[in-house]
Write a structure and sequence with these properties.
Mean pLDDT: 95
Strand content: 25-35%
Number of helices: 14
Low-confidence stretches: none
Structural class: alpha+beta
Largest sheet: 8 strands, antiparallel
């Protein structure tokens, strides 16, 4: 087992990893930017190293500085968390070259799954259901228009290097293709330095459902059932839950088998997530694979009693998994609490927290790095806490979540708590009959 792990991340996920490491008897090293010197992950790690100024490119994305921090502290492994360098093949490769274990996917796996067109081709070859679309990248707009005629509108143009909804455009008919093509390429080039696009048939009335998988270095994988991530705004997840309100046991088993097949086809090692779109007929299609731990992993942990961070570390240390699949015994839901003003288009709201009260009680979990007096820097993602609530069924969870949200006090900044409270009373949400487009028509005016 590892003696010391450096956490190449910040905020709640860094603190989450530190807690598991302490329980495993493993020493920890926190890295931090100058903007994060007062963060709790710095306080609770065994050692801490400043790796640069506030901008991410000079700190949390600075591979030489992070490798140097690992070397001077004699860390024998690095956990990247999620975001930043978690899916960076170059960082994974650098760890290998300096004989530091990267607790995550290998460079080859990251490359295979990081390029969405390549990932789709890999999954199709493995027999995992995929959305009808181009076999690879589009050579020209004219080629895309010909394919769109064959598949039938609507279609979706997607950036191969995309993420967070950038470089994606829905094309409803031929007249809108040229503008969508130009807009998607421009946005993708600006965001990722890559304007390559591919095309897919647009799935109508879709739900975003993902399968949590874990693989070991011996070629074996298992799944831990699904998470429903359909409550999104501009392709950014706001609430996740498990089990999905539309899931049947038969569908769960088929999607779980597809997730395991996807992981084993590339010899995947560690915790990962295979993401699917599920249509109105409950047919499912591979969308992408995230080769890292997910923000929403706690709800899976709550319903199957399984520490995913611990399993990641054990697998990276060479422990073989049993291959047993896990199925939910409870219901769990996560609300992402962001420092954003939902009444103003979710505009970021950095600043000092003047008063903080966290909810508690049976079935309530908080993953957060903030405290009263903490100043949220403007340099990073605006998520400041995850409120996770569990119960016997979905109705109990919604009632408990509403109670917990009403107890959650954060003063000094705007947050998404008012949005979540309103959502808990929404009849469509409570019915479970929503799609990825549900929030497109949601009324944010009175928040």
């Amino acid at each position: 087992m590892f003696k010391k792990i450096l956490i190449a991340n910040r905020g709640e996920i860094a603190l989450r990893i530190i807690r598991t490491c302490k329980e495993m008897g493993i020493k920890t090293v926190a890295v931090y930017s100058q903007a994060d010197q007062d963060s709790l992950h710095v306080r609770f790690a065994d050692e801490a190293v400043c790796i640069g100024p506030a901008p991410s490119k000079q700190s949390y994305l600075n591979i030489p500085n992070i490798i140097s921090a690992a070397e001077i502290t004699n860390a024998d492994a690095i956990h990247p968390g999620y975001g930043f360098l978690a899916e960076n093949a170059g960082f994974s490769q650098a760890c290998d070259e300096f004989n530091i274990k990267f607790i995550g996917a290998s460079p080859k796996m990251i490359d295979q799954m990081g390029d969405k067109a390549t990932a789709k081709a890999t999954m199709k070859a493995a027999g995992v259901p995929t959305i009808p679309g181009s076999e690879g990248l589009l050579d020209s707009m004219e080629q895309g228009m010909e394919m769109a005629k064959d598949f039938g509108y609507p279609v979706m143009l997607k950036a191969t290097a995309g993420g967070g909804g950038k470089g994606m455009r829905i094309v409803k008919d031929e007249s809108g293709f040229k503008k969508a093509w130009e807009d998607a390429r421009t946005e993708s080039a600006a965001a990722f330095g890559n304007d390559a696009l591919y095309l897919e048939k647009f799935v109508e009335e879709p739900r975003h459902i993902e399968i949590q998988v874990v693989g070991d270095s011996y070629g074996r994988a298992c799944h831990l059932s699904e998470r429903d991530c359909s409550i999104q705004r501009r392709h950014q997840k706001l609430i996740e839950e498990t089990p999905s309100p539309v899931m049947t046991q038969e569908l769960r088993e088929r999607m779980g088998e597809a997730g395991v097949k996807a992981a084993e086809s590339i010899g995947y090692e560690g915790a990962g997530t295979v993401e699917f779109l599920v249509d109105k007929n409950l047919d499912f299609f591979f969308m992408e694979m995230n080769t890292r731990i997910q923000v929403e992993h706690p709800i899976t942990e709550e319903v199957v009693d399984y520490d995913l961070i611990k399993e990641q570390i054990k697998v990276a240390a060479g422990v073989e998994i049993s291959g047993k699949n896990y199925f939910p015994k409870l219901h769990s839901m996560e609300c992402r609490i962001n420092a954003e003003d939902p009444s103003k288009g979710f505009r970021p709201s950095p600043g000092r927290i003047t008063n903080l009260h966290l909810p508690g009680g049976h079935g309530v979990r908080i993953d957060s790095h903030v405290y009263s007096g903490y100043t949220i820097p403007p340099n990073y993602d605006s998520m400041i806490a995850k409120l996770i609530v569990s119960g016997q069924d979905r109705e109990e969870v919604i009632t408990r979540m509403k109670r917990a949200l009403s107890e959650f006090v954060i003063e000094g900044i705007a947050t998404t708590i008012p949005f979540h409270l309103k959502l808990m009373d929404d009849e469509i949400f409570k019915s479970g009959k929503f799609t990825n487009q549900f929030l497109d028509n949601f009324d944010f005016s009175d928040l």
